[in-house]
Specification:
It contains eight helices and 17 strands. It is an alpha/beta fold. Helix 4 links the parallel strand 6 and strand 7. The longest helix has 25 residues.
Length: about 300
């Protein structure tokens, strides 16, 4: 089949690689335009564009999908649209370009966690299982018929970074299976259960502020869900303190106010009282400084024990 592949972040790269390896013709890759990245804020291409370049594939990175863009895509004569984390909504005029319609890989077990942040929401809500769904693209976002699903058991230690990598590999495998079924005419879609729908919302930097009144297990889940972006943070005095890695200890209490640094445990970390239990901070970064492990941080932070963390 002649395929237009649409995607942007790292999670979509294994799927592009798998589609190319499967023998289908990728007529072009549709991705987001270059954006500022890094400390120098230099313009950088998306990971999908960089992968497409390695394969020598044509790349389209428009700001919008208007008439001119639709005309350019129509000239490529694509049959099927394959999407993984492109980040834009496709209108009916655009979808009319594809005689075989479109399919989308979504990193959750739909109808749970429709929307743009399914992986962080699965971690924050401490789901016991998540997964990847291949669905038909429909007018309503993430509401198309399910073509294939595969679960991922959650161990309670996942970060968005690690779970995205796993979901990317699984999604590539499922996409290739669905492409084979579409080509043979054997694919069968199953409507989603609308009564079971949950939604994930777009994250912002402010979502990273830690509420020390919450339970240690909930705070730890948020730290993991927001890594590597937007990152969980609190305040140490007037400075922003980013928490990169943590571990909850829900059976211990100190009697101190939530946010109070109880101790520096050489084997467990910087122990902080929460609304329920203690949380060990293992890796952290003070504003303007480099990231470091808790031992190095504690060695350079005078009067840390007894300090109460809060909004910077």
């Amino acid at each position: 089949m002649r395929i237009l592949f649409a995607g942007s972040p790292d999670i979509a790269v294994p799927s592009l690689e798998a589609v190319v390896a499967s023998g289908h013709t990728v007529v072009a890759v549709l991705t987001n335009p270059p954006a500022p990245r890094g400390r120098g804020l230099g313009m950088a291409s998306t990971p999908v564009e960089m992968a497409a370049t390695r394969f020598g594939l044509p790349v389209l990175s428009p700001e919008r999908l208007g008439p001119a863009e639709r005309e350019a895509i129509a000239a490529l004569e694509p049959e099927l649209l394959v999407v993984f984390a492109y980040g834009k909504i496709f209108g009916p005029k655009f979808m009319a370009l594809f005689p075989c319609g479109g399919i989308n890989a979504h990193p959750s077990l739909l109808p749970r966690w429709r929307g743009c942040a399914p992986i962080p929401f699965a971690i924050m809500n401490r789901d016991l299982v998540t997964g990847v769904t291949i669905q038909r693209i429909s007018p309503r976002v993430d509401a198309g018929d399910v073509l294939k699903q595969a679960p991922i058991e959650m161990r309670g230690i996942e970060t968005t970074e690690t779970l995205s990598a796993l979901s990317g590999i699984l999604g590539a495998k499922l996409l290739c299976q669905v492409l084979a079924e579409i080509e043979s005419g054997s694919e069968r879609g199953v409507p989603q259960d609308e009564s079971a729908v949950t939604y994930s919302a777009e994250l912002s930097k402010d979502d990273g502020l830690v509420d020390w009144n919450a339970a240690a297990s909930d705070i730890d889940a948020r730290v993991r869900a927001l890594f590597p972006w937007p990152l969980a943070f609190t305040g140490l005095g007037a400075d922003r303190l980013t928490i990169l890695e943590s571990r909850p200890y829900t059976v211990e209490e100190s009697g101190n106010a939530p946010g109070t640094v109880i101790s520096v445990d050489k084997s467990r970390g910087i122990m902080v009282q929460t609304g329920q239990g203690l949380m060990a901070i293992l890796r952290l970064q003070l504003q303007g400084k480099k990231a470091m492990g808790f031992k190095d941080f504690a060695n350079g932070a005078r009067g840390l024990v007894g300090t109460r963390l809060g909004a910077p």
